[in-house]
Specification:
CATH architecture: 3-Layer(aba) Sandwich
Number of domains: 1
Shape: elongated
CATH superfamily: Vaccinia Virus protein VP39
CATH topology: Rossmann fold
Distance between the termini: 59 Å
Number of helices: 8
Strand order of the largest sheet: 2-1-3-4-6-5
Radius of gyration: 22 Å
Length: 281
């Protein structure tokens, strides 16, 4: 008897994420990463020679991807809700385009969300998204782990786990996308100290929202030691520290007969062995 699909364990408190994103906007958000992604997304869409009549922006923080409005004046914005639900409000084959900027890294069931997007796209519809992944904030993760191990005798979850490039490519294929493509844009930002970085993360609405996060305030001694370790390991000659952000880009198309298709096994008209023989003559 077939077993029902298992619901993946929840990693992120998406209701808390919603609250923190609202607070960040009210306080004057830090948007340099989002601005970079929005500009890059505009360029990437400009290279696609087709019209998108029905488009949706999925969970992008902030008001919307305003730079896309010139090309997509009727784009529908799907905002993160207080309930943090991951069920998408799209009818099957109803959209030509789905975009998302710096949101999918906080999804509990990314395979499920990608599958929902795939079902919502019309044949030859496009998903184009950017998410934080790879080695993002590896410096902060290492500094906190070392400080907590030294000062408190244990380590608590401080920085969310991020998917890498290969994981995302595999998930696109698993969801049924054709012609999946992934690439990474590494951004290294310099700060005066670790506390300035953490302030930026709060004003991005991207502070720790892990369900298993520590619920008590951090000890002052631990925070100070973390900042010291960060400066010892990840500072440049001028004393400023480095913070890595890996922006993973992903795109895929809903299958359509007009798309390039891989050759069937055994359909090649010349063998590799014969080609090698000819090249050696």
């Amino acid at each position: 008897m077939a077993q029902p699909p298992q619901t993946p364990p929840a990693l992120f408190d998406r209701a808390l994420l919603y609250a923190r994103q609202r607070r960040a906007r009210a306080q004057g958000g830090v948007t340099f990463l989002l601005d970079r992604v929005a500009e890059d997304m505009t360029d990437r869409l400009a290279a696609v020679m087709r019209e998108f009549h029905a488009a949706a922006d999925l969970w992008t923080p902030g008001e919307d991807l305003a730079v896309l409005r010139a090309r997509l004046p009727s784009i529908e914005r799907i905002a993160l809700e207080a309930a943090g639900a991951e069920k998408l409000p799209f009818a099957p084959e109803s959209l030509d385009l789905v975009v998302s900027a710096l949101a999918l890294q906080f999804v509990n069931d990314l395979p499920g969300v990608l599958a929902q997007v795939r079902r919502a796209l019309k044949p030859d519809g496009l998903l184009l998204a950017a998410m934080i992944g790879g080695d993002s904030l590896t410096e902060l993760r290492q500094a906190f782990a070392a400080a907590e191990a030294e000062c408190e005798g244990g380590v608590s979850p401080r920085v969310a786990p991020f998917a890498d490039l290969r994981d995302i490519g595999a998930l696109l294929q698993r969801a049924g996308f054709a012609l999946p493509v992934t690439d990474v844009d590494r951004v290294v930002v310099r700060y005066g100290n670790a506390f300035a970085l953490m302030q930026d993360l709060r004003r991005m609405g991207a502070a720790n929202v892990l369900i298993e996060r520590r619920r008590t305030p951090s000890r002052r001694a631990t925070l100070l030691r973390m900042a010291e370790i960060y400066a010892e390991r990840f500072a440049d000659a001028d004393g400023r520290i480095r913070a890595t952000f890996d922006i993973i880009w992903l795109s895929g198309w809903a299958p359509h007969a007009s798309q390039q298709q891989p050759l069937k096994p055994g359909s090649a008209k010349a063998s590799l062995a014969e080609a090698v023989k000819k090249a050696g003559k």
